[in-house]
Amino acid sequence: MRLSAPIYKLKRQAKLLARAEKIPLHTALDRVAASEGFESWSLLASNTSFRSPADRILAAIRPGEIVLLGARPGQGKTLLGLELVARAQAVGRAGYFFTLDYTSVDVVRHFEDLGFKVSDGRHAMIDTSDAVCSDHIIRRVGPTDGSEIIVVDYLQILDQKRTNPSLQDQVEDLKLYAKAKGAIVVAISQIDRMFDASGKALPGLSDVRLPNPLDLSLFDKSCFLHGGEINLHAVP
């Protein structure tokens, strides 16, 4: 049986349902599971064929790689990026989330919507500074052992400040850092709005919105989302 949406989106649906109807979260989870054809949420979650997209991506990317994660608004790219960070500990890595788009309150709320608590500091380091750029990210992560998953939200505004290096230079720096340290860097990316009229099932590299020049072959892998589908490929 195929789910109508990835598990992380179904969890968010249940969270919103619990808030809207003022019912316990476990009741809302079971109700969402029933709509997917399962008797309970535990039965849905225990089905190994519905492994989290974050788990599948973490199993497919390798130390030292830099990954582009792209989707149109509302498709869950930020939530997926947050889940990658939250699950970093489970694969023996430290999670870092750098964002120029969200406040710390927003990020914590999204983590909690996914079922993760960040108040104890175990799941992630969150940085919402206006200074986020490649230099800032490399300084904040520091001289570590390379066991990091670093998610950057998002690609197209890294060079928004004129004092920052070009987007090309920043991605080159992050790639060199990832390769040297064995870290994993995931850059969340906007997709051009023309994709909505293209009739394609999923975006591709040609649909990435690039207000400033960037050689996308710098990325080792690309991951695109749309309509509950996810496509992860090596970048040619």
Q: Describe it for me?
A:
The mean pLDDT is 89. With 236 residues, this protein is α/β, with parallel strands linked by helices. Strand 4 (148-153), helix 8 and strand 5 (184-189) form a beta-alpha-beta unit. The chain has helices spanning 7-21, 25-35, 41-46, 53-60, 77-86, 104-113, 134-141, 167-181; strands at residues 66-70, 94-99, 125-127, 148-153, 184-189, 221-226, 229-234. The relative contact order is 0.16.
Structure characteristics:
236 residues; alpha/beta; Rossmann fold; 2 domains; 8 helices; 35% helix; 16% strand
What's the helical proportion of residues?
A: 25-40%
* CATH first level of the largest domain: Alpha Beta
Mean pLDDT: 89
What is the architecture of the largest domain at the second tier of CATH?
A: 3-Layer(aba) Sandwich
Question: Count of DSSP E strands?
Answer: 7
Q: What is the number of helical segments per DSSP (H or I, 4+ residues)?
A: 8
Counting helices, strands and paired strands, the structural category is: alpha/beta
The biggest sheet amounts to: 7 strands, mixed
CATH topology of the largest domain: Rossmann fold
CATH superfamily of the largest domain: P-loop containing nucleotide triphosphate hydrolases
**Quaternary organisation:** single chain
- Overall geometric form: globular
**Regions with pLDDT < 50 over 5+ consecutive residues?**
none
Q: Strands of the biggest beta sheet: in what spatial order?
A: 3-2-4-5-1-6-7
Order of helices and strands: HHHHEHEHEHEHEEE
**Whole-angstrom Rg:** 18 Å
Terminal-residue CA separation: 33 Å
Strand content: 15-25%
